[in-house]
């Protein structure tokens, strides 16, 4: 009985051990399959994760783009000064009195000889009338003396009077003639003073100012009008003494005037002062300016330059050219959608307008990067605004 029981227990143990082993092998197989599936999925996703990202284009604003254009560029000494009228007249009172009438206002055109004002002075009128009476009286006295001299001469010839009486009569005629001349001179002076009561324009022009008004009491020397001829203006400017060798009479001058931004004006040097200012060491020059259109007015401030050299050329702003190495300037050009560094050669340089001529390296219509945009690395894709030049990015 004991032997039977012993043999019946051993098969039960082997059966349990086999089940456990089969379960373990199933779990391991399942894990291997899962790992294999996960590995295959990772291998499929790996190329997508490792693919390089497409480069992003740098967007450049219109303020950082300059187009190469053909323009007029000039060089020469800079000048600054004030516009003045070539012909100007200040009309002043030549006599005392009260202003009865003024006939012209500021901004009104007047012709030479036109009536500007009338001044009242009763004393001058009376003096003129008195001078006229004195002339008539002196002329009558001269007539009497001449007739008396003629009678005396006849009597002397007849022997009725002595020769001495004829000399006395002739001296009376001479004295009477002197009185007439004196009276006429006094009349002319009175007439001149009387005419001064009527003020007339001395030149053709425009009334620039009229400080006097009807009813004002004026004295000799009081300013009544200021008249300028705007058809021809002059620019009274100054240049540094170091630039004297670069200027001469007849050279053209280009300038701009406050009040007319962006509108250039031209003139020519007419005169050069022979002396420099002892304080500023600058030399005055006088530039004639035709002002047929009448746009320029006296007193405006002007800035410009003596056009020593001038030509039409490819021009860009100074900020478009990198001159860190003066011997090897370069620009950053937008070409085929990318930034391209291009060496250039330079010509005239206009410091006043901050422009420079490019004689080689770029073409008209090329778009160049300026300012901070020049820090972009060459080869970088660019996105430029539309309408900033003919070259496509």
Characterise this structure.
By secondary structure, the chain is α+β, with helices and mostly antiparallel strands. The chain has four domains: about 1-50; about 60-70 and about 310-385, conserved putative lor/sdh protein from methanococcus maripaludis s2 fold (Beta Barrel); about 80-85 and about 230-310, Efflux pump adaptor protein, beta barrel domain (Elongation Factor Tu (Ef-tu), domain 3, Beta Barrel), CATH 2.40.30; about 90-200. Helices cover about 30% and strands about 35% of the residues. It has three helices and 22 strands. The chain has helices at about 1-50, 120-160, 165-195, and strands spanning about 60, 65, 70-75, 80-90, 95-100, 110, 115-120, 200, 205-210, 215-220, 225-240, 250-255, 265-275, 280-290, 300-305, 310-315, 330-335, 340-345, 345-350, 355-360, 365-370, 380-385. A six-stranded antiparallel barrel has the order 4-11-14-13-12-15. The chain has a four-stranded antiparallel sheet with strand order 3-16-20-19, with no helix packed on it. Helix 2 packs antiparallel against helix 3. The relative contact order is 0.18.
């Amino acid at each position: 009985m004991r032997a039977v029981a012993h043999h019946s227990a051993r098969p039960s143990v082997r059966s349990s051990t086999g089940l456990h082993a089969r379960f373990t092998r199933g779990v391991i197989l399942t894990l291997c399959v899962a790992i294999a599936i996960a590995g295959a999925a990772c291998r499929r996703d790996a190329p997508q994760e490792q693919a390089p990202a497409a480069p992003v284009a740098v967007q450049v604003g219109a303020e950082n783009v300059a187009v190469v254009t053909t323009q007029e560029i000039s060089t020469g000494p800079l000048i600054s000064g004030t516009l003045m009228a070539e012909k100007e007249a200040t009309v002043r009172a030549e006599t005392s009195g009260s202003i009865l009438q003024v006939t012209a206002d500021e901004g009104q055109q007047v012709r030479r000889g036109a009536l500007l004002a009338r001044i009242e002075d009763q004393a001058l009128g009376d003096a003129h009338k008195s001078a006229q009476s004195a002339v008539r009286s002196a002329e009558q006295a001269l007539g009497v003396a001449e007739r008396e001299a003629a009678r005396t001469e006849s009597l002397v010839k007849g022997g009725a009077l002595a020769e001495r009486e004829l000399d006395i009569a002739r001296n009376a005629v001479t004295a009477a003639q002197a009185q007439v001349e004196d009276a006429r001179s006094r009349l002319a002076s009175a007439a001149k003073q009387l005419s001064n009561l009527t003020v007339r324009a001395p030149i053709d022009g425009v009334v620039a100012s009229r400080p006097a008004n009807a009813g004002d009491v004026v004295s000799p020397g009081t300013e009544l009008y200021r008249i300028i001829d705007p058809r021809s203006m002059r620019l009274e400017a100054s240049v540094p003494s170091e630039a004297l060798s670069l200027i001469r009479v007849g050279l053209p001058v280009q300038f701009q005037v406050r009040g007319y931004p962006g509108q250039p004006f031209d003139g020519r040097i007419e005169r050069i002062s022979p002396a420099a200012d002892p304080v500023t060491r600058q030399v005055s020059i006088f530039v004639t300016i035709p002002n047929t259109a009448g746009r320029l007015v006296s007193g405006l401030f002007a800035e410009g330059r003596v056009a020593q050299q001038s030509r039409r050329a490819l021009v860009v702003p100074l900020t478009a050219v990198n001159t860190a190495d003066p011997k090897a300037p370069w620009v950053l050009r937008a070409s085929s959608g990318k930034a391209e560094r291009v060496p250039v050669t330079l010509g005239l340089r206009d410091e006043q307008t901050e422009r420079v001529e490019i004689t080689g390296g770029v073409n008209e219509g090329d778009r160049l990067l300026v300012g901070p945009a020049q820090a972009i690395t060459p080869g970088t894709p660019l996105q430029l605004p539309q309408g900033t030049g003919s070259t496509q990015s």
